[in-house]
Here is the input.
Amino acid sequence: MQTPTDIIPHTGGVIGVAWLMIALPLLGAAVLLIGGRRTDRWGHLLGVAMSLGSFVVAVLALVELLGLGEEQRRRAIELYDFIPGMVKMGLLVDPLSVSFALLITGVGSLIHIYSIGYMAHDPARRRFFAYLNLFVAAMLLLVLADNYVGLFIGWEGVGLASYLLIGFWYFKPSAAVAAKKAFVVNRVGDFGLLVGMFVIWTTFGTLTFKDLDVTGASNGTLTAIGLLLLLGACGKSAQIPLQSWLLDAMEGPTPVSALIHAATMVTAGVYLVVRSGAFFFPVGSGASLAVAIVGAATLLAGAIIGCAKDDIKKGLAGSTMSQIGYMMLGAAFGPVGYAFAIGHLFTHGFFKADLFLGAGSVMHGMNDEVDMRKYGGLFPKMRITAITFIIGYLAIIGFPLLSGYFTKDGIIETAVHSDYPILGWLAVLGAGITGFYMSRMVFMTFFGKPRWAEGAHPHESPKVMTIPLIILSIGSIFLGGYLVVNQTLYHWLSPAVGAAAEAPHFDPFTTPGLVTLAVVAAGVLLAWFMYGRAEVPQTAPAGNALVTFARRDLYGDALNESLFMRPGQWLTRLAVFFDNRGVDGLVNGLAATIGGSSGRLRRLQTGFARTYALSILFGAALLTGALLLVGNL
Amino acid sequence: MGETITFWVLAVVSVGAALGMVFNRKAVYSALMLGTVMICLAVLYAVQEAPFLAAVQIIVYTGAIMMLFLFVLMLVGVDSSDSLVETIRGQRFWAAVAALGFGLLVVLAVGNVVFTAPAGLGEATQAAGGNVPALAALIFTRHVFAFEVTSALLITAALGAMVLAHRERLRPKPTQKDLARARFREGRDPSPLPGPGTYARNNAIDMPARLPDGRLSELSVNRTIARHDVEEGHLPSDPELAEAIRHAAEEEEEAK
Amino acid sequence: MTTEYLVLSGILFVIGALGVLIRRNAIVVFMCVELMLNACNLAFVTFARQWGNLDGQIIAFFVMVVAAAEVVVGLAIIVTIFRTRRSASVDDANLLKY
Here is the structure.
């Protein structure tokens, strides 16, 4: 085992101005939001330019980082004293953060470009780009900050952007509700992260990655911090038990689903686990086991949900949950697992963005229809979309030599060879289900007989939308191989996340690998028999209990409702009752008593001077009596 | 011995006068009773080695303040006698209880103390050479500030009384011409009212005057005096005169 | 003798107070107040002699001055009230109430 290398203070160069990465999109968001309607005409171009600018800075930083020795690739730049005596705001530019920055700005820029076409007819396009830029800035702050406070600010920033974008079409009640739901569920996770930070601060006296040293801390504390951080990660990454918001989040515009709810934001949890891995999630610890269990459970749950959805975006959302489950599973197994988890994160970022944007392209051509039962036979109508979608599909199911194959296989292998092989075999099962539901999606959308609604005229999307698709699908083909075959990513990341005693090597012909392929093939075949060859009914048939179970999102919402919402409502009603009767009753009763007695007392104010004089005389008599008594005592 | 007799006589008189003041229906009698009490007190002051205060009591209280009271009584209406029926429920009873209780307590308190023979003021006044110089010395030395403040108080009180009693004139003051014109316009008594018949054939002010043609002038009789005469039965024996006075008294009753 | 003077003073004071409480004619009420002030003066003068101290007489003197000022203003007020309400009864001026 080898720990991450030391963090070296840095000035000058491109890394010295790494803050530009955050500042540019933030500036874009500010200009677009403050400028208002005046920026309507060129707002989207500014948004794209800012995102591309960030991408350029990220690339230059990468180049500069590559020029340094392997031991010196963790550079910290100091910005300002944020909370005097507690936090100095700074950026940490290391292989991990630069990789994320590249993914965020790269995929982000492509999605910006795509959105120009997708949102062309939306009157609020400028606002959309402002939010996208805001999101990019916040997400970059999240991954670049060299301390937990900065990370948390970015974390909340992306939460805000996510809320704004899910509810972008706020006039739709479903969108508004989904935005609220995402926000609330995320608060639960954020609470965990926040308390985790509190414990870190009180235990270690620092929140900066550079100064954090966990040697000597008790196991219990470390596990507690790990579990709290995991709760945060679960919220942001839609892992069980906080998964319920992601499916509803698909109410947002499709580019948002692609950028935030597939490629970048939802991976923030994985980033958090990997970044804190050396501190709080060492291999074999309780916290890392929890991460693994959460990951395995979510990857199966997401896959099962994906099987039951007829809404193409919700199907992809279930798939996203599932794939992040894989990443979480990988992130539980130390440096080797980190490399595969991050690798899968990248490849997933590409192929899932590809799939989502493909889905968006299909919807664009089908009058925003999302029900796959109303698709069918679209291949000849939109060839570029179909081909890129199928490339993404092959990548996600782990078709040999495509991106997903390498990274997913790596995670499964790592898990099978860990102390908990059962989790690895569950991941194999998950891969089979992935094969089934993704194939179902492709068959239902592009093949079979058309089941289009009246008046649908499927057509290919404009170039501004298809070109990003092509770029993303190219990434989906080659990225995995490049990252994994020679363990490029593992070696590149090891300064930042540590290295294992033995470097992994790529071997496609192991038992788990072959079994996985077989299971996936079985899933694809099953889907072919059920949806490729057979007729697909236009309305969903009533399924058995299992299907209902999956359609209802594994009763996640029902569970939340009965476990938290109902008791919460009861508690609220109780509190309201108590407030009305108890607190208000007391206060009102007091006021009524005072009012009533005042009403009676004021009768003393008769207006007759003689009555007052009488009371004065009585008072004088009483005083005299009292004086006499006191004098005689 | 002399002091004791003086005290008891004056005490009985003053308490009686005070009770009379409180329980007399007519305000003027009350004022006179109060004057009696004040004069009694003045004598008691004199007995108690306070000649200056005794003089001031008579000059200021009986002289100035009581006159002021009587003036105001005249303004407000001498004959407006008070009804003694109580209107506030329980006021009399409780007033009696409070007054008796308070009085009892004061008497108790005073009775509780055994006083030695009075020290007398001889020593205190000797240095200055008499009561008045001694008081003057005190007023203009130790109490000079209070004295000056008192002067300010008096000036303020005088000003306040003027401001309060002042009535704003809303119309220009009528001249002789205006008044005469008004008299003629109303069409009655353009000349001043005739005087009473005091020097005509009688020497009393309540006798009506005779007009040049020998008739009696009812206008010449003071209405209040006429009513008084009717009430008291002081009517002259001459039926013509008596009739005129009774007539005037009836008019007065009607005017009320 | 001092005790007797003081008791007389107390009796006069109480009579005055009683008058204030049961009479309704404002002028008579005022007279009763004057009676109470005079009763106090008697006590002051008595104490002055009892203790051989002239301060009691001085205070009595000041009481007289203040009483004079008070009567002036009070009677002016009564006249003003009478002028507007045609009544000198203290019970008629009872608008300031609940």
